[in-house]
Structures are given as C-alpha cells and as structure tokens.
Amino acid sequence: QVQLVESGGGFVQAGESLRLSCAASGRMFAKYAMGWFRQAPDKEREFVAAITGVGGQSYHAASVQGRFTISRDNAKSTGYLQMNSLRPEDTAVYYCAATSEGGSRLLSLRWYDYWGQGTQVTVSS
User: Fold this and answer.
1) What is the pLDDT of residue 28?
2) Are 5 and 116 within 8 A, CB to CB?
C-alpha cells in the first residue's frame, strides 16, 4: 500500500502558475502509476493527468493540454503537477492518486486504489 499527501495549492490570479506535489510513503513507488484528478463544487471528480510508473508515458485531459504537465521523481517518491496559465475554471480541489493499472484505465478514477487528501487551488479572474 501507499499513502499520498498533496501540497502546493493556494490562491493565484488568472495567468499565474502553481506546482502541486504528491509525496508518497511506502515502498516500490515506481510500480504504481500516478494520476491527478480535480473536483469543483457540485461537479463530478474529473481526470486531469496521469503518468506511468517509470514516467515513460503521460496523459493529459484536453482541458489542460499544453498548460499542465505531470511528472514524477521516483528517487524522491514524489509526483508533480505543473500548472501554467491558470484559469478560473481550474478552481477545484486537486487529488493525487495511485494505481497498479495502466493504459486507458489511468484516465478513470475507478481504477485508482490510493488517494491523497486533496489540496485547494483557487484562481481568481
């Protein structure tokens, strides 16, 4: 099993950047793919980005493609989400998650076994 803790959220203005971190505890972090999801009030939790265990492949939702970049540093057991050109519609609680699955399953929250507590990102206009 793995425990995940997100950090790096905050208040920013539109056009600014944030980098979220996801620190993992436990062994063999590299065997897990990692994903980022977000949930705004009164909305379903949605996929943002995912990356395979050794970082060979990454996926980004169309809504963030070109603005957000997922990455990981397995030596530090930490995943990241670099968020540039933030927009008010990016406002949400952001969650990191881990799964032993791969491929298209990384785009669906149903396949993730481990979740962080979430970190709030608020973007003002």
Assistant:
1) 84
2) yes
C-alpha 97/C-alpha 106 separation (Å) is: 10
DSSP per residue, 16-43: --EEEEEEEESS-GGGSEEEEEEE-TTS
Which residues sit opposite 84 in a β-bridge? none
CB 23 within 8 A of CB 5: yes
**pLDDT at site 101:** 95
Say which DSSP state 108 is in.
S
Closest by Cα among 24, 12, 35 to 87: 12
Residue 26's pLDDT is 75
C-alpha span between 2 and 115 (Å, rounded): 9
